[in-house]
Amino acid sequence: EVPISETLLTKRILQECGIARAGSKIQTSMQRILGKLKLKSNTENNMRFYWKKDQKVGEYDGYRFSGEGINKREVMDISEVEVINAILDSLFDEIAMQESDLIREGAKRLGYSRLGGNVMAVMKRGLDKARKRKLIEPTLNGSYKMSEEGEGLIKKQKDL
After folding, report:
1. Whole-angstrom Cα distance, residue 99 to residue 54?
2. pLDDT value at position 95?
3. Is the pLDDT of residue 156 over 80?
4. I need a surface site. Which of 17, 102, 128, 149 has the fewest CB within 10 A?
């Protein structure tokens, strides 16, 4: 289950141990333990995400549906990389989309049918990152389309 946020990883480990919630002492202990393990990680918006040791963060091309019940992920536990990939996948299917439609479709692909404040914030942040990385670009009518770089990335993903 990667990428996985430190928050969700801690929650999953505690669930396996039969512990319902993590107080500050448990969170501090988990951070210390995870630090000693020297796991591959990156930080996004003050959150740490863990990866497989052989994964290259910049080359990750997937995204996961949030799931339900015990497998549900809060939107804040989703890596920007997954958000960007869901946005690119949406544009691959639709060619060009207005920002609001792109945000809604990307969120739906990640498992969020309602666009609450947190979902909207995470999706807009992903859209901004995709734009800054020049993976998407605005069209003359104000919608977004994939750039050549974005197309190359998504074609590489689809060919695999």
Report:
1. 34
2. 87
3. no
4. 17
Q: Give, as one character, the DSSP assignment of residue 45.
A: T
What sign does the dihedral 34-43-144-136 (CA atoms) show? negative
Q: In whole angstroms, what is the distance from residue 87 CA to residue 85 CA?
A: 5
Return the sign of the alpha-carbon dihedral for residues 92, 97, 99, 104. Answer: negative
The owner of tokens 């995870």 is: 34
State the CB neighbour count (10 A cutoff) for residue 153. 20
Tokens at residue 151, please?
């197309």
**Rounded distance, CA 140 to CA 107, Å?**
24
The mean pLDDT value for 83-88 works out to: 95
